[in-house]
Amino acid sequence: MASQPSTPAAAGLGTPRTMVEPRPTAAEPLLTLPTGRLLQAVVLSNAAAAGGWTLVCSLFGFGNDTITTGVIGVALVAAVTIAGVFAIVPWMAKPASITMMLWLVADVFGMLLTLAGAFLLYSATSLSSRPLLLGVVVAYFLTLLGKVIVAALHVRRHLP
Length: 160
Known about the structure:
This protein is mainly alpha-helical and 160 residues long. It is built from 4 helices and 2 strands, in the order βααβαα. 68% of the residues lie in helices and 2% in strands.
């Protein structure tokens, strides 16, 4: 039996070439996110959502059940969002693309967990669906807005 050539060049195939030559790139900058400011944005956004919900419901004459149900929805958003902030470990320096990808993934999973939690709350208790859903939507929108502002300002200051 004849032995097989060990390399493509030895087999007469020439040197293998790639279509695109790899170019060296500059190292990607490392980025941390401001944990304290993110948590502050979450807490203040949810406090504003709960206060606004209570104020609007009181002005329009809705009952205490409606107010309580909406505030429960806001509390659910606050709990899931705070857990999401800690889940991405924002105080550890990571490449900027990884940091922002983790932030986005945490927000998407947070939204899904919030909706699942709201569904479980609605199914397990006698909470009204509309105030619960509206409380969740308002709180999540304000929280996302606050987190985006904090992250965008931080990234703009720290990346070239």
